[in-house]
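B., you asked whether I could sanity-check this one before it goes into the benchmark set. Here's the sequence:
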Amino acid sequence: HEGPEDALVKDFPLQLITWKGKNRANSTQYANPWLIEVQQQTLWINPQDAQKRGITHGDMVRIHNSRGICEIPAEVTPRIIPGVVAMQAGAWWQPDENGVDKGGCANVLSSARITALAKGNSHQTMLVEVAKA
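And here's what the prediction gave me:
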């Protein structure tokens, strides 16, 4: 689906990936305050990519593509490679009055196309851009 060879990379140069976190099973326990203390919903971004965009650790960032918009805090970390950003899977969709997701739900950025092998959603193939909110 979408990747670095895609023409969309001109407008959306970052590859968004998601991971399974330690504080919930998919979306189960998303709203549990004790488990939110364990790990908050943030966007991991490499220091090089953050610097290019004027983003510092803790800034609210807008992750967007042609399908949707999320706003969550940035976690600037060298633990993710340049050109890739990441957030934990399973966040609830929490739209504001303008439809901007404030929960960090990666599904608002993913395609409705299914994968060839598993016939599931293509949540690891999202091209996005990130800016300070």
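One thing to flag: The chain has a mean pLDDT of 88. Otherwise nothing jumped out at me.
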